[in-house]
Amino acid sequence: MPTFIARILDWPYFTLLARIALTFPFWGSSLSKLIDFPAGVAEMEQFGLRPAWLITCLVIFTQLGGSLLIIANRRAWSGAGALAIFTLLTIPIAHDFWNLRGHAAQMEFYIAVEHISVIGGLMLAAILSRQSKYQGA
Question: What span, in angstroms and rounded, lies between the C-alpha atoms of 27 and 17?
């Protein structure tokens, strides 16, 4: 590995940046729902989730709370697990490509596949957080 790459990977703030980037879709979404709560409620209603206001609150709590745990590297396994379960549940609720046809089905399939990749990233975040505890980081 080139020395400059090793230095970047060993830089403590690089891991913080990676945790922030990994969780961006979640904390970005939760902040959006906090800023425009009625739009967040409408989004839940669109997917038939009731009571929509309560589901919106739970989504905000899960997304923001899970993100903060990962970013702070405190109980990151818990935050990663919550966000992974949340992400997995969104596939049948919001990205049910098997019920669609044509281009819409293809686009929702791509989103579902991306969700699986995000879940993998969350799994790695939990693993690396555990390993950093053993290395004194």
Answer: 14
Cα 2 to chain center, whole Å? Answer: 31
Q: Is the pTM of this model over 0.85?
A: yes
CA angle 66, 70, 76 (to 5 degrees): 90
* Structure tokens that stand for 60 in this block: 């905000």
- In degrees, rounded to 5, the angle at the alpha carbon of residue 40 between the alpha carbons of residues 34 and 26 is 65
Question: What is the rounded CA–CA span in Å between residue 77 and residue 81?
Answer: 6
Q: What is the pLDDT along the chain (137 residues), one digit of tens a residue?
A: 999 999 999 998 999 999 999 999 999 999 999 999 999 999 999 999 999 999 999 999 999 999 999 999 999 999 999 999 999 999 999 999 999 999 999 999 999 999 999 999 999 999 999 988 765 44
Identity of the residue numbered 46? Q
Q: Residue 13: left (phi > 0), alpha (psi -120 to 50), or beta?
A: alpha
